[in-house]
């Protein structure tokens, strides 16, 4: 039973029950512990069933009764065949509880064992690491700061703290272009003047932060590019460089459009006209120069915009400043004078403006008229030229006919033969053309087909490549996962206690098996012995009966003749009777002995049921319930 | 451990025996660890053993090596991880060994440095209390309630371990609440260890 109890307690602990170390067998289980164990098991087996039950025994007696009833119901729902009721939990006896717990433990899902083969997620590993760290820190005693060694600094007060502050680093390599393509000056800067990265940050604490941040940003940029290339770049059938340059051009165009739209001069703001012209200029230069410039490879719209705002040439800014400054009133004239002057100037300027606009309109009308007339004239000229060439043609034909007129008949015949010959030639040419055309068309068709085939092939290959990419990624991930699992299992294996060796267990199991075999043999031997004995007894009884019958007959025959023989016959009968009685008594003793043994066993089981203590408990609980009831009744009366 | 292309390139240069023989490599490793741990010193460019190596290349290798060291310490990498990583970029076994020995020597210090990047709340190191009994105040003639004046000695990590005090007063219920919450916290820390 000890072995069984140990296994039971182990399984219950795994199911989440909090069992003390000194509880070694089911006999020591208290009601609270039983209830908790059963509820935990129920929760693991069927969360829906167990979630409504509380793992702690409530203080009120009636609530305890209800909990016991519902627990019994739940166990029966799970298929427990044995006798079960609230008394099983509240007034426990050992064998019942053991059988119930065995049933529940058998019902516990086995997947938990299989789940441990799955690789634990990163978060689980991290949590384990955290738990180990906390455990280690909890094990250390606290030391006052003056007694602290540098060794303790990590676990106890961490000393000086810095926040994570990264600074941009100047690196001796370029992400965008290979080192060979870099300008000579840049290389020289790297070689001669660049300070090592660890000396670059102004604050010592930010060295680590800057380096880490730099690395992570590089990694994530690479990852993003990879994603984009796999999702879109591969389908565009371009080399990576082409794809990049095309994307860059597209982005530039979009930014340019956006900026142009935003920089449209608006009539209601006077001041902007100047700056918008600058903006337009800048836009032009922007479109021209940036292709060769230092645009980020993964330039987003934001970076371009940023670049645009920050690279504005200083000269232009200076110009703007000067213009703004000259526009300010620089004289010290009195305000009225200034006003009058300004008004006069304004009216003069307005007049001028009106005049100019009138003039503009006039000139505009003139220009329009003139352009219309120019169009007309040029059209006429074209028509004339056409008619002229036509007329020239007719004149030439007529001239030739006039030349041919003197020898009209001969010439006619000649002309006819000429016409015939040319007609023949036309037919001949057409036939020839047909001859040539057919193979050419065939060739064309063939090539077209080839082309489409190729295209299909290439798209097929493209999809294959994509599949391969996916596969590669998947396998890499799988390999990584497996490696992690391997490592985790190795660490787990190392942490496992080494003393419980497998061979010892198998030895024990084999021992037990051989013991059982021996016992079985013994039992069969005893059984055969018993059978033999039974047979012997039967044989003896038969023999006895037969001998008795023969003797009885013989003696009875003689007894009629002889008086002494009659006496002996009487003795014989008495002997026989006494012997049967004796046998009977022996048999009776045997049955009684058996009964006694049975009764003893029963007494033992009854003793195991803790009847007395349970009865006392029941009595107490009964009193408690009565008290509760009376209290409730009193409350009702008061209410 | 994931490494970016530039780091991989730098490490490959380091692995190349034409650029770094074993002697200059060990000098370089030492310098790289030193440059992370102490801000003084000239860093890589001034070391006599590394004079005849192209300085731009050297600086690139320095960036790669320091980044690799930091990543390894950050992830608490063990020997197998580090050696598999370095073998991937074609380090030979001697260089791996050299690197790993210096890594082991300096790991603790680097861990301390990394863990100092933190915002740490003040640590309570001691507590003292006084009982105050309020008989009456400006509003009520008879109050007759006790209150506790608690004073925590705290150690502040952000200002080089200077200790300061946190003072407050609370009623009995509030104090009980505080004690209960502290007990809860202690219990949940303990529960966190039993994973």
UniProtKB/TrEMBL annotation, chain A:
InterPro entries: CCDC22, CCDC22_CC, CCDC22_N. It comes from the Eukaryota. Residues 313-342 are annotated as: Disordered. One of its GO terms (molecular function) is cullin family protein binding. Residues 1-109 form the CCDC22 N-terminal domain. One of its GO terms (biological process) is positive regulation of ubiquitin-dependent protein catabolic process. Residues 317-332 have a biased composition (Low complexity). Residues 333-342 have a biased composition (Basic and acidic residues). It holds the Pfam family CCDC22_CC. Residues 128-609 form the CCDC22 coiled-coil domain. Coiled coil: none annotated. Signal peptide: none annotated. Belongs to the CCDC22 family. PANTHER family: COILED-COIL DOMAIN-CONTAINING PROTEIN 22, JM1 PROTEIN. This is Coiled-coil domain-containing protein 22.
UniProtKB/TrEMBL annotation, chain B:
Belongs to the COMM domain-containing protein 3 family. PANTHER family: COMM DOMAIN-CONTAINING PROTEIN 3 (PTHR31159:SF1). The lineage of its organism: Eukaryota, Metazoa, Chordata, Craniata, Vertebrata. GO terms for biological process: sodium ion transport. Residues 123-193 form the COMM domain. Pfam families: COMM_domain (PF07258), COMM_HN (PF21672). It comes from the Eukaryota. This is COMM domain-containing protein 3. It comes from Astyanax mexicanus. InterPro entries: COMM, COMMD3.
